[in-house]
Amino acid sequence: MTFADLGLSDDLLKAISDQGYDEPTPIQAKAIPHVLGGADVMGIAQTGTGKTAGFTLPMIDRLSNGRAKARMPRSLIICPTRELATQVAENFKLYGKYKKLTMALLIGGVAFGDQDRLIDRGVDVLIATPGRLLDHVERGKLVLLGVQILVVDEADRMLDMGFIPDVERICALVPAAGRQMLFFSATMAPEIKRLADKFLRDPVKVEVARQATTADTVAQHLVQVPPRQKRKALRHLLDQEEVNTSIIFCNRKRDVADMFSALSRNG
Ligand code: AMP
Fold first, then answer.
1. Which long-range contacts (CB under 8 A, 24 or more apart) does 79-82 make?
2. Where are the beta strands (DSSP E) in 154-238?
3. pLDDT digits over 140-180, tens only?
C-alpha cells in the first residue's frame, strides 16, 4: 500500500514525500479513503499511530476548492490541549505547503491578535481548544454555521479534562446538514460512545490495535530450560532474586497443583 493508492492529490503526495514517509501507517491506510469520500469516521487510535495525518491529509484535499467567508471557518478541529492543537497546526503547515489553504489557531491562555484577524477574514481550517472556541462564539467573533468538516481529536482526553459538555455544545452549533464529522479517541468510554452515537451519521469505524507494551517498571526475561529442569530453575530464580511476592502461571490445573506441592515441599 502506498500513499498514491489512497487517492490523494499530487500536491499532497509531493508534501508527503518531502516528509520522507515511505508508506501510510495502518490508521492512515484505513481512514484516508473514507475521509476523502466524505464519510463520518470514528477512529480508535492513540497518539503515535500517525492519526493526525490520517485526518489532516484528506481534509486538505477536500477543502482545496472553495473559499471561506468572514468569521465562518470551513472546517474545525477541536483538541483537548494547546500543545496538541499546535501540533495539529504544524501538520497542516507541513502537508498543505503546496496548497493555498488558510488556517488559524485559537487556543487558551494566549492573546493572538493576528489569529483573531485571520478568523475575522475567514479561514479554511480553524484549530481550537473547546473553551477558547466557545468564548469566541459567545462574543460573536466566530460563527460555526459554515463548518463542513468537524474533527474532535483525542476525545478520551477531553473526557478526562471535563470538556465533554463543551464538546457537545460545539457539535450542536455546527449544522448537521452536509456536515462531515471525524471523531478520534484512544478508547471508547461510554460517554464518548454516547457522544459519537448522538452526532456521527453511519460512521465508518477504523481501529488500530493498541500496541502490546510492557510497563516501564517491569523487566522481562526469558529463561530457556529443558522441561525436567523447570522447577529447579524456578526455585533458583526465586532464591536468587529474593522474591517476596510473585505470580506463577501454568497451563494446566494439574501443573498448578504439582507446582504448589513442590514449592511448599521446598519451603
Ligand atoms: P501522530 O500519531 O499523528 O501524533 O503521529 C506520530 C508521528 O508519526 C509524527 O511525528 C508524524 O510525523 C509521524 N508520521 C505520520 N505518518 C507517518 C508515515 N506514514 N510514515 C512515517 N512517519 C509518519
1. 79/127, 79/128, 79/129, 79/153, 79/154, 80/129, 80/130, 80/153, 80/154, 80/157, 80/158, 80/160, 80/161, 80/163, 81/129, 81/157, 81/161, 82/107, 82/108, 82/109, 82/110, 82/129
2. 180-185, 204-207
3. 999 999 999 999 999 999 999 999 999 999 999 999 998 99
Nearest ligand 1 atom to the CA of 52 is 3
Phi, psi of 217 (to 5 degrees): -80, 0
User: Is this prediction's pTM over 0.90?
Assistant: no
Contact 191, 164 (CB under 8 A): yes
Q: Please provide residue 240's backbone torsions phi and psi, each rounded to the nearest 5 degrees.
A: -65, -40
Q: Determine the distance separating the centroid of ligand 1 and the alpha carbon of 48, expressed in angstroms.
A: 6
Atom 11 of ligand 1: nearest residue by CA position: 50
**Contact (CB, 8 A) for 130 and 107:** no
Residues with CB under 6 A from ligand 1: 21, 24-25, 28, 47-53
CA of 21 to the centre of ligand 1 (A): 8
CA of 49 to the centre of ligand 1 (A): 7
Q: Residue 41: beta bridge partners?
A: 182, 204
CA dihedral 245, 249, 254, 260 (to 10 degrees): -10
The stretch 91-96 carries a mean pLDDT of 96
